[in-house]
Amino acid sequence: MEQLPILRDLAIISIVGVLVVLVLGRVRLPVVAGLLLAGAFIGPTGFGLLSDAHRIQSLAEIGVVLLLFGIGLEFSLERLRQIAKTVTIGGSLQVGLTILASVLCARLAGQTYARGILFGFLFALSSTALVLRTLAERGEVDAPHGRFIVGVLIFQDLCVVPMVLVIPILAGKSGGDPAHDLLLALGKAALLVLVTVVVARSLVPRFFALVDRVRSRELFLMAVLGICLATAFLTSLAGLSLALGAFLAGILLAGSEYAHRAIGDVLPLRHAFTSLFFVSLGMLLDAHVLLERPLSVGLYLAAFVVGKGFIATLSALSMRFPARVAWLAGVGLAQFGEFGFVLATLAERNELITPSEDRALLAAGVLSMIITPLAMHLAPRVRAGEKILKPLERLLGARGIDEPMPEHSALSEHVIIVGYGVAGKMLARALAETSVPYLVLELNAETVRAAREAGEPAYYADVTSPEALASARVEHAAALVLLINDPEATRRAVAAAKQSAPKIPVLVRAHYIAADRALAELGAEEVVFEELEAGLEMIARVLRRRGIPRNVIIERVNVARRESKGLFIRKQTLQRPTLATLPELGELKVETFLVRHGSFACSKSPLDLDLRRKTGASLVAIRRDGSLCEDVTATAPFRENDVLYLVGKLVAIESAVRLLDEGD
What we know:
The structure is a single chain. By secondary structure, this protein is of the alpha/beta class. It is 64% helix and 7% strand. The chain has 29 helices and 10 strands. It has a 6-stranded parallel beta sheet with strand order 3-2-1-4-5-6, sandwiched between helices. It has a 4-stranded antiparallel beta sheet with strand order 7-10-8-9, covered by helices on one side. Helix 5 packs antiparallel against helix 6 (113-124), helix 5 packs across helix 14 (294-318) and helix 8 packs across helix 15 (323-332). The protein is elongated.
């Protein structure tokens, strides 16, 4: 039987890739860095296990398409509109400043404007596939720096078309009127993208409805891949990158009811082909040029990592992002882009750069890609970059909350809400309706502006900064509630809050129970885990649909919650200290109930309700008119606005609350 060379290549890539990633995993280094290094080892200039990289690169292109398609599926047009300002302003600043800096450096070195603009193109583009994969692995796509990076990457991909068209013009080899050719090509590209969007929006839902009726998983997967690849191909005809077309296809499908199913079907293929892409990038590293031209490679690498990173940081600061966000954004964008390889080849063909310059540039580019996952892994823990940026942050007016408004300058016993997304808005509304004072701290300037227009006490602030917490009067606050999507920022915020106000209760929303140990060691009193609460809610909804009685549902949810405590490494702190110190009373809870006008308990006495016998809960105290009364008279009726203190097991407490509110 004839052997297929591609099978041998894939076998070598798989085995070497797994071994390298396992070794790097022992020291907790990112998977992407391992795949890039594996490609460097097995490539033509490494150990030479693969002599022909072109076969792998063809499959790798499919990996980029599937990666960007999957990320687009997790996006939506609404989320894209939310970062529109970052795409236009942030992207323009990053690309424009990079090209300007390159031109200035070229002129100082005695080079022509054409070469300066060319190198500006090459340095302006970052690796969409690499950075988005790393952000997704770290769960930081929705973090402030993640949103900025995604917006800039989208703008960079949009710039690819004019860059490709301008390179022959820079070389003086374009036929006809250059301006006319450029405008005509851009017009065709815009028209094709518009047609793609309109057709996809009108026909894709109907197409998938027909496919879904067949009830075939294989047919559905083929339909998803067909839409993805067809859209990418159509946009490539307009000169746009395949990656941008695939991303656009994912966004268009994200608004339909088939998005989640598509994600589940494409995910395994996406991971496999994307791994090939990163290995193929590593294979481009020319080890010989590192020995032949180490100075040139070092200068190019410094330009990518330091120069380009600083410009990206400056762009983020100009958009009023605080130092920490700008620092992480600069690190995330400081590398060569995969489409830069295409531009470099085109520039060499048009004699704008020499072959030796091209080799040195590509070697530095691959090294910058290897460094990026490591840098993004370490950057959140390195505070030196933020401290260096602080003066520049103040100069550009990117500081957060400096002085609260007069009515907030003497707040006490207030709640500080960090993050004004869905959960933050729900909490703010609940606090407002119960007359509890609060402040909102948020890193999205547009969100802060909209909240202030709505009358909310919102401030633009970086909660990891002790100065911002001091301005929010954290030492006088009743609680700090963290509802942000950046895990590292959450941990640093807890540490900063406990350093500024050791006694303040800190409540945290976290995605996974695995984060519990670190948050507990930092001082978080209570953590709400999304995966746990979602699981408990799913239990209740499934049992309700099956017609299980409500009291049985409550019992099963409570059992699941108690059993879940075994997943927690930290000591539970939900009980009152006086009960938690006694293990035999660990199941008892202390809860309160507000007697309102219309409550069943209003105007009734404890004797009338027979609370202990009917529910198992005990009434231990009443707060009336601001005073706590522990001597409860059995025949004295409850009044409106009384606060009742109940003790008992969770099931008994819930039964008592229902009795007090609704009756038997």
